[in-house]
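User: Assemble these into one structure.

Assistant: Restating your components, then the assembled model:
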Amino acid sequence: MKPRTLIGLATILVLLLGWYLATDLAGLIDRQRFPSPGDIMAAGSQIINRGYAGGTLLTQALYSLRLVVLGFLVAGVTGVPLGLMMGLSRRFEALVNPAFLLVRPIPPLAWIPLAIVWLGLADSAKILVIWFAAFVPAVINSYTGIRNVDQTLVAAARVHGASAGRVFWDVLIPGSIPMIFTGLRLSLQASWTTLVAAELVGAVFGLGKVLSTAYRDIYPAMIAVGMITVAVLGAVTTKILAIVERRVIRWRET
Amino acid sequence: MAGNLTAVRPGWKERALLSLAGTAIFFGLWQILAISALVSKFVLPSPAEVVIAGLTMTAEPFAGATIQGHVLASLGRWAMGFGLAAGIGIPLGLAMGYWRLLDAIVSPIFEGYRYIAPLAWVPFAALWFGTGIGGPVMVIFTGAFAPCVINAYRGAHLVEAHLTEAARTLGAGGMRVMAEVLLPGALPSVVSGLRVSAGLGWQSLIGAELIVVSSGIGYVLVQGQSNLAPEIVIAAMLAVGLTGLLIDVALRFVESRIRQRWGQTA
Amino acid sequence: MSDIVFEGISKVFPRGGSAFTALSDVSLVIPDKQFLAIVGPSGCGKTTLLRMAAGLEIPSSGIVRVGGRPVNGPGADRAVVFQQFALFPWKTVRENIAFGLKCKGMPRAKRNKVALNYLELMGMAGTEDNYPHQLSGGMQQRVAIARSYAIEPEVLLMDEPFGSLDAQTRTLMQEELIRISRVNPRTVLFITHGVEEAVYLADRVVVLARSPGRIREIIDIRPIREGEGWDKLASEEVMEMPGFGHLRARIWRLLRREIQTSSLDLPKIN
């Protein structure tokens, strides 16, 4: 095993040990504010088995996951084509740009209150905000991706008699895919961040609800359980996206 | 450039016209939608109403202060969190780039922390540091921290080895190497990291203010929402966007000046 | 005193599965204030030797001593002039030269003065406020040399310092180096590909063999140099002297044998 990995593992072990000692054993840190590993495990088993804030961990996690995936997919399906079209046609870009520029600087989270005014605390409000957060990176990166396709390749295709359509599908799209996936990765990240925020602001169910209820109950161990779950789900979904990406881009060494 | 399929590229005049048309269409549709009976006034105010609401708030306090007052309160928190993130993150990133042992120790912790959405820290931040200034500042810090470290780290790696070697052969100790070789050498990377970090910090701030706070532009958003006054909400959203844009423009300017001053060298 | 002593130096680099022996049991003494040049084919380990003396590389076995003290890291007593100049692009010429003095804690006014002195010594007065990228290669290398000289090191380690210069600038720089060395003599270890450069500049020339790196022969230039009075001549006149040609041929013959044992690139004959 490489020395670097060893040191990394050692550090984590030392930290975990220190944490356990400071909290469970010596009681050095106020457990009202900072949970011990034991507390976290207890909270974890509580929410997994008996539920908390309205449901078990599984149901809450799936609920949030569903929202993220929906918002992400809609954003991808709408954002990528828009970005590609803006990259292809300068006329179209000129037309759409003003609206885009006006809306773009507004942080996605700032849309939450408006979404609540429009749609209340329903699922659709959250999907709307997630869609918005994930939309922007998808558009921008698809746009950059298609703009940066090597013009020599396009010329080569034309010279062989390729029609505009063929140039698009066989040269431009494959050439843009790496950046499209970069955009999708950013979209996914943004989706999770926005979901957590949206659920913290106002939710009836989901991981954000777990977090805000735990906060109100002053139950730091449960807060930690919620955060860990979010992190794990985030890592898992990112990994899945990476696997999809690798299958699609088999021709490219990353 | 372009994946342009049309043979003739539209000139700037044509594009300006199209942009104007696009703007007109955008506002026109908005206005029509707002005026029509399709959507209630409590849902979509007209552009005019938004402007009026915004201007009113510059004169009359809403939810405790004028809109400028709220923006300034938010900027203050943002500046503190951002300053902390840069002040700790940049030296850390540089040091990790220079000392491999430190890199090996800190990296796993850092990678783990990166996966947690910054706003997921809000409950703990509020629990530990309160909901006035401390909590939001911590949330901003969490959001702004990662790009500072990463860009400083990458920048340090870009500094050519013989520059640090030259410094050491001239008698420079570790701190001096970091301050006088790594930092200037990594600066282009550090500054563009600062830009990303500033943006993320601003976003995290807004998020934090939506959840736990009693002043600031995020609070205005929440109050507008609970008063069912979407014109206030939209006006505040535009204020948020504008401020974020100004921060970004300012940092872009700084970034380009620095690149100019030091020529092409890394 | 500041002599450089290499005692039984070996250096092995791990390369994937196997190991590459760069240097094998090299022992060499450079007495105080002597100018020693090392020539050899590419990959013979000459740069590695220099880096060990600088403290930038650790021997696999053996010890390097400078002034009697073992070397365990870089320091201002052994200044290095790099082939790529290694000037700090974000500092002005003056700030670059003054850098080592700053590390020593010299106050600003004083170190600026010292820096300007060395700049004048290099014949570049007036450029102190320029940035490196505004100067030509030759000027940059002169600043690099001034920077090393300014800290008044006991030992000067020069790694193909004129390698990236064009032939004409190189000749002028060689003459300059001789001039300053007469004014301020110190122990110098000079690495080069160029046989003529080595013969012209050095007191002694070491020819290094390759794979593994070891000393093939050491040639003393001084008897011929003093006999023919090179110090009073311009460089082109020196190179016409019979003694010079004889030494050059002899070293080149040694090198040729080293190179032709495998087919890597040839050293320049400048």
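Residues 164-201 of chain A form the longest helix (38 residues).
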